[in-house]
Inverse folding.
């Protein structure tokens, strides 16, 4: 899991992000490069990036034992939404910036931990 570290007057602490977006990529992946160019630099600044911090995984590297996915990854990039290390949804391929964000929001809104609070009618 992604560990977020902060420094306070009392020292250093850590908290693990329960929800993450795992980007499975590989060297030479043209669509990975396009995603990195269009979104990679700003992802962490967005509401979506705060709801599900990005974690990267090379397709051919050993998979961490704390990740459980529902099936093999066949395409890069593949974006897997993880909750406590378990897949809750995925986007296979990069459909372009205009389609990526709505697809990601749909995944996040289905996830109980990242569902935005409902606004009340006053």
């Amino acid at each position: 899991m992604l560990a977020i570290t902060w420094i306070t007057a009392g020292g250093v602490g850590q908290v693990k992000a329960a929800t993450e977006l795992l980007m499975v990529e590989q060297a030479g992946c043209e669509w990975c490069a396009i995603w990195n160019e269009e979104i990679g630099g700003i992802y962490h600044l967005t509401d979506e990036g705060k709801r599900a911090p990005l974690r990267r995984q090379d397709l051919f590297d050993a998979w961490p034992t704390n990740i459980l996915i529902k099936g093999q990854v066949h395409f890069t990039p593949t974006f897997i939404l993880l909750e406590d290390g378990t897949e809750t949804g995925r986007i296979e391929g990069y459909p372009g910036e205009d389609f990526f964000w709505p697809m990601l929001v749909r995944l996040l809104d289905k996830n109980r931990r990242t569902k935005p609070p409902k606004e009340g009618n006053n």
About this structure: The chain has one domain: 20-110. The chain has a mean pLDDT of 85. The longest strand covers residues 19-25. The two ends are 39 Å apart (CA to CA).
